[in-house]
Amino acid sequence: MQKTMKKYTYTDKKDTRSGFGDGLLEAGKRNPEVVALCADLIGSLKMNDFIKAFPERFFQVGIAEANMIGIAAGLATSGKIPFTGTFANFSTGRVYDQIRQSVAYSDKNVKICASHAGLTLGEDGATHQILEDIGMMKMLPGMTVINPCDYNQTKAATIAIAEHHGPVYLRFGRPVVPIFTDPDQKFEIGKAWMVNEGADVSIFATGHLVWEAIQAGEILAEEGIDAEIINIHTIKPLDAEAVLKSVAKTGCVVTAEEHNRLGGLGDSIAQLLAVNNPTPQEFVAVNDSFGESGTPAQLMTKYGLDAVNIVKAVKKVIARKKQNA
Amino acid sequence: MTQDISELKKIASQVRRDIVRMVHACQSGHPGGSLGCTDFLVALYFAIMKHDPKFNMEGKGEDLFFLSNGHISPVFYSVLAHAGYFDKAELATFRKINSRLQGHPTTHEGLPGVRIASGSLGQGMSVAIGAALAKKLNGDDRLVFSLHGDGELQEGQIWEAAMFAPHNKVDNLICTVDYNGQQIDGPTEMVLSLGDLKGKFEAFGWDVLEGDGNDMEKVVAVLQKAISHTGKGKPVVILLKTGMGYGVDFMMGSHKWHGVAPNDEQLNVALAQLEETLGDY
Asked: What ipTM was estimated for this complex?
């Protein structure tokens, strides 16, 4: 009755933003065209090492995010590969029109790198906890949207986007979380990562929810449910082939993300399935609300973004699948 | 490239004809600001900038121009066409379906000469600063030019950029303000006063020049003067006094022709005032 789940352990924990900082330094070493900009949050974005190594390729713009996006577009016009750094809220909602016109519509090779995304920013509260950013960014034609799950994946993704031509939104977070992916991984934009093969349900998770999905998978395995867990680090372009292949096998879906259920990963998967293979789906996401102050762990529990809630969603969706059968 | 003022005037007259014909043909677009900025753009592309109409996006070794007030696309397109970036005949497609000459300029359709989309106001100064910084990083001693509406200066992003450029000694940048005192809803002094614009830019740390934007000789002179002011640690801004609708008597000096196209009769009156010097497209 009990199923087996691929074992994931960790020996170290780090914040994903440190993965960005280390990845940026590496990208800077590999390509002299890589430049960076920051809006008065160097420490928070972990950009110090890049600045130390390449002071002339860094621009402090002050608390002026709109100007930062415009300057990045100008640098990209002349062949530079600019990485902008600020919190996710100020990287997206505050500068949506600048990104839309000067970056996305103008097809500029700008990398918008956004830390402190989602509820896990914690105590600062809802003014800073953006839960709509994936939606805003994925709606922009030509924009690539990436939300990596741990330090190693964030570092690899940062290096990978420097080698990709086109605008990218890279979303990561503040809290220290387990490191469980391969330190030597080759990050492929738009290519889902099979975390665990299973037959009973497909769990598609992104960002900090991937570790929660693994925890959920272990609980489910003990209860005899064989969960397939897939890490969708690239929300756009979505790996449609991986999603459809998994769903053809399992027949039901749970999506898990630190984002509003409107406009996030869940929406993208639902739209894909509605057209290609209508399938029962449950959403582990914030239920169309703002966040609030609290510790990251308290907030993830209160807003239902943890392993316990993934397990509940899996049981619910499997019951719906059986009803339909 | 020519410094011959009478040659430049001839080009400007033809560009003005193109503008009124373009907006008439699609019965939309912005003739007022386009006519007012014609002398500036003609001077820039035919007497001032080193540029290559074969067009390379990065523009290394070239002077670059960014149009921030994208609604004056008719003058931009006409000047680009006459400068050889694309065939003049394409001006007939302005604002029409499947055209590269979109209502507001964009890189999206691959039109040579356009390096950034503009139309949503206030963004071009930041972009020009970015391009100027890239030139410094590349050891490229050519300049970056930009044009902004005066009403556009009401956008907050302009002042973020205006604060950044002097702090970072972006002294390879010449921004020009189309200082016509008009915007869609009326005179800027009524809508939202710009106040002491010269004093504002100076307080931010800019080298501020003033000029007459509809006298070709003076336009060329103020641009040359601006170039002589570059490389001295400060960004340069030219407050260029222009008349909205300049060159067509019934359009001049009023915000009413900001975004209105002439009818058939008005077109003929306008064309009678503008000599056909280089052949209509």
From this structure: 0.96
